[in-house]
Amino acid sequence: MTTKLAGLAAIALASLVLAACSKHDDRTLQGWVEAELLFVSPDEQGRVEIEKVREGDHVNKGDLLFTVDDDLQQADVVVKQAAVTNAQQAFDRAKELLKTAAGTQKTFEDAQAALRQAKANLDASKTRLARRKVASPASGTVEQVYYRPGETVPAGRPVVALLPPGNLKIRFFVPQADLPGIKYGESIAVSCDGCDKGLTAKVSFIARSAEYTPPVIYSQDERAKLVFLIEARPDSPQKFRVGQPVSVKLANEAPK
User: Fold this and answer.
1) Angle of the 71-99 helix axis to the 105-130 helix axis, nearest 10
2) How confident is the model at residue 242 (pLDDT cuts 50, 70, 90)?
3) DSSP designation for 43
4) Under a CB-based contact definition with an 8 Å cutoff, are residues 27 and 178 in contact?
5) Cβ-based neighbours of 33, under 8 Å, separated by 6 or more
6) 238 compared with 122, residue with greater pLDDT
7) How far is CA 75 from CA 48, 124, 131, 177, 200, in A?
8) Spatial CB neighbours of 160, under 8 Å, sequence gap ≥ 6
9) Structural contact between residues 53 and 159, judged by C-beta atoms closer than 8 angstroms
10) Residue 5: left if φ>0, alpha if ψ -120 to 50, beta else—which one?
11) In sequence order, which residues have a C-beta less than 8 Å from that of residue 133 and are 6 or more positions away?
12) 54 pLDDT more than 60
């Protein structure tokens, strides 16, 4: 009986050793999907008038996202246009007087400078007016809408959060012993529950500073291990979701 138990124990121990070796050879780590969102906001405070998108919508670069009331900006353009008209008349008068020697060169140059300044002020006002219609700075998916029509948004406060596909990244932590085997730009295999097979990503960042406890723990290894943050950009970002846990396989050879 004792011999039989000893044999079973030996078999169990061998199985654990093989499993541990297999795990080490696969070099599989746990990570998660994170996003670098683009926060789109108006330059100046205003009331949201038109909202063209909702969460989940796909937009192309240049598509209209929302508009903000532009009454003050339109009035400012009218004022600046009147200033340009007055400056143009003063310039024309100074030019004619200079031809007849009734005016001075300095008067002409002052009128010319005033006209140039008035035109610059008008261009700035037109730019402020145009920016009350906010377009998408990149193609991507609308992740969040923070303000609705009728609500007043402060200057610089985002109205829409946009996620371009290229701004999705996979983050995971690598033990110090495995760090020398990871190279910038190399491919890694990525898998997750319900995902397609054969997904890959390319290493885009390797931290130079070590950490003892990752901010998000998916790993089952001991927390006391010295680890380094790694980031990778998925080759098929549309296959992943923000916050999704993933498994990363650091194979000896990069997947083809």
Assistant:
1) 160
2) confident
3) S
4) yes
5) 168, 169, 170, 171, 240, 241, 242, 243, 244, 246
6) 122
7) 18, 13, 15, 66, 54
8) 39, 40, 53, 65, 66, 142, 144, 145, 146
9) no
10) alpha
11) 64, 67
12) yes
Task: Pick the closest to residue 231 from 140, 162, 166 (CA basis).
Answer: 166
Cα–Cα distance measured from residue 250 to residue 25, given in angstroms and rounded to the nearest whole number: 9
Does residue 111 have a pLDDT over 80?
Answer: yes
Instruction: Give residue for tokens 């296959």.
Output: 239
Query: Other CB atoms closer than 10 Å to residue 238's CB: what's the count?
Result: 9
Dist CA 138 CA 11 (whole Å): 59
CA separation (Å) from 142 to 42, 65, 69?
Answer: 16, 10, 22
The string of DSSP letters for 180-210 reads GG--TT-EEEEE-TTPPTTEEEEEEEEEEEE
What is the pTM for the complete model shown? 0.71
**Could you give the 3-state DSSP secondary structure of residue 88?**
helix
Residue entry with tokens 């290493």: 203
In this structure, what token pair is assigned to residue 186? 């190399």
53 phi/psi in degrees, rounded to 5: -130, 160
Q: What's the Cα-to-Cα distance from 152 to each of 6, 124, 159, rounded to whole Å?
A: 76, 23, 10
Q: CB–CB of 52/162 below 8 Å?
A: no
Q: Dump pLDDT digits (tens) for 115-131.
A: 999 999 999 999 999 99
- State the Cα–Cα distance between residues 27 and 221, nearest whole angstrom: 12
